[in-house]
């Protein structure tokens, strides 16, 4: 297992280097500036910082005008480019499936000698945890309730009925299922391949080596990494803003409405204060390091998550929950193509659904993809392309649908067969209270409400810390042994940006930031489909070549190694002839 403090893992070596040669003799961060306790890229860091400072200044100075501008921009992007977001994400799914089930499926991430750094169970567990976050806590109840009252028109369901509940679960599964994980999978595969198979820095510019060559170290590469920094920063700020809104509402609702003890004020400024407090905790976590801070909090996240999930399964409508899961999956799979391409253009009854939800989600997932993509790239060395794609697409997606069925299904039960109080409170107060209004309908509602609030806080801290790691990595030229103060700096910056967005326009500003930065990054991802194809095809051609066979023969004679093959197509592993445990990739 790789050192947890090394976010890049071990680069390619051995046979992989001998076969493919280093793509570049450059070292990560070899042009960095080291001063005042920082180790920064001379272009990406200062330019990113200057643009962020300009954004903060303009938002503060414009005041209410900024809020109106964010609302206009959100609607304009959704109305004008919604079709592009939908088409792009479908292309990402098709591309990944082609890589997995085509001739490139047996190519191993890390090269022919690469070994898995994590067991299958650990890898699957980490994919599950990557699929969880503030978003699922925020929307797992509120989104099904919204669609229960406003079912997508092509389902033909009447609002507030059982058919509407089925449509609501299918639509929610769509937003949290295969499509977002196709975005993460594409990014993760590109980062992993060009880092581990080509020995390039674990940054986004490296993925464009087939097109740019050494120019990835010039302005084309700088622009790619800058767009990635902004997408990550604003995508993360959206999550932090949503999370703190839910924490604020949770403390107020549990403390005031449920306990009748403490009336916590709600609104922008209390949320800014909460961001400051939780960001301070995140900063302390960064200072403690990955092993001392975020690793322990991530473990705590898993315990809290399964405790809350298991609690509701036990005290809630258990049979109804699992029935909802199965029926929801059927409705989801039965309509996945229609959902994936539905823009509402030809249906006046679409009531803005793609703009309000799907386009926001797709922009958010695209903006969030550097964070999740770098994580899954880091943990996936030694796995075949097919294993990687199937694992990333299916495991987190299925777990997300289970989580949504437990909470969303319980909300449907309360609405259709219970007292309907969760829906009534949601309509009266808003989506931030939906989770707590639902938990109140079951035994120990105060305890589970406080548990949910604590879980959102820990997700906030771990997201901030991990996001800081990604941004720090990008602004240091891919170098990973940089001063910890830089990650602390970015943790504070994330909290500041989230606060400014809340002050300048509330949740609409946060949503606008996600889809605005996601738009140019979506173009980068579309081009990434082609560059990853070029990289995989080049590796496949070499693995199929006579030169490769001759190299293997020479190594077998020279180094007394045994070659283990998978069929007649390609070599998939190199092992010691005395080691009986050697296996292929599949």
From TrEMBL:
Broad class of where this protein is predominantly found: membrane
Give the record's keywords alphabetically.
Cell membrane, Membrane, Transmembrane, Transmembrane helix, Transport
Instruction: Give membrane topology per the record.
Output: Multi-pass membrane protein
Q: Which Pfam families match?
A: BCCT (PF02028)
- In the UniProt record, which is one GO cellular component term? plasma membrane
Q: Where in the cell is it found?
A: Cell membrane
Q: Which domain of life is it from?
A: Archaea
Q: Which residues cross the membrane?
A: 43-62, 82-101, 121-141, 181-202, 223-248, 268-290, 302-323, 359-377, 389-413, 433-461, 488-507, 513-536
Q: Which GO terms describe its molecular function?
A: transmembrane transporter activity
Q: What is this protein called?
A: Glycine betaine transporter
**Organism of origin:** Haloarcula japonica (strain ATCC 49778 / DSM 6131 / JCM 7785 / NBRC 101032 / NCIMB 13157 / TR-1)
